[in-house]
Amino acid sequence: MKNQLEFIKDQKENCITVIRTFNAPVDKVWRAWTEPALLDQWWAPRPWMTKTKSMDFREGGFWLYSMQGPEGEEHFCRADYKKIVTGKSYNALDAFCDENGTPTEFPNMNWTNTFIPNSDGSSTVNILIKYKDAETMEKVIEMGFKEGFTSAMENLDEIFESTTSV
């Protein structure tokens, strides 16, 4: 059975909570979310691909990457790391940007990802994404965020199911 993604939209608090369990221990799940070579394998929903331009995973550092589409489209994003508790959680401000990392006018999203080990050896990632207002949150949802993120999570499942060690 595939792991189910729980997607909770909170209009009052202008946030989305995503809860997802993976059939892998926390250390492997943490690495998949924090190492660019692994992120590039699953972050984008297929047929899109992720390509890291640079990553400095530390408080004050950032990840600059692009999402590349099958028709040659390329959209850049930047995640600025605010707080990291190694192996447990991290907080980042995520924004669309240009190829140099300069944010565009599209509003940013504040992500807090918490990694929870389960007694059966699996791990749950609790993702809280806050927006400045409900309108911004709805715009992101209308752009296909839920479907795209669900697809990306399934890509990560495939990595954990493969014989390749993470």
Question: Quick recap of the structure?
Answer:
By secondary structure, this protein is of the alpha+beta class.
The helix count comes to 4
How widely separated are the two ends?
21 Å
Q: Give the neighbour order of strands across the main sheet.
A: 1-2-8-7-6-5-4-3
Mean pLDDT: 94
Estimated helix fraction: 25-40%
What does this structure look like?
It contains 4 helices and 8 strands, in the order ββααββββββαα. The chain has an 8-stranded antiparallel sheet. It has helices at residues 26-34, 36-42, 134-142, 145-161; strands at 5-10, 15-22, 49-55, 62-68, 74-85, 89-97, 109-117, 123-130. By secondary structure, it is an alpha+beta fold.
Core attributes:
166 residues, alpha+beta, eight-stranded antiparallel sheet, 4 helices, 8 strands
Topology:
Blueprint: E1 5-10, E2 15-22, H1 26-34, H2 36-42, E3 49-55, E4 62-68, E5 74-85, E6 89-97, E7 109-117, E8 123-130, H3 134-142, H4 145-161
Antiparallel strand pairs: 1-2, 2-8, 3-4, 4-5, 5-6, 6-7, 7-8
